[in-house]
Amino acid sequence: MRFKSILGVALIPMVAYAANPVVGEAPTAAVVAPSVDDFTALDAEFDAALVEYTKELTAADKAARRELRANSPINRYWPRFEAMSKAGEGRATLWLVEHIKENRDVRSKDRGAVLTPLYQSIIDNHADAEWFTGAVKSLAANKKYVGAEASIAMLEKAAKTAKSDNAKAASLFFAASIIGDSDPERAQKWMDEISEKYSNTVYGTAARASKATPEDSEVGKVAPTFVGETIDGFQFSLEDYRGKVVALDFYGFW
Question: pTM to 2 decimals?
Answer without folding.
Answer: 0.71
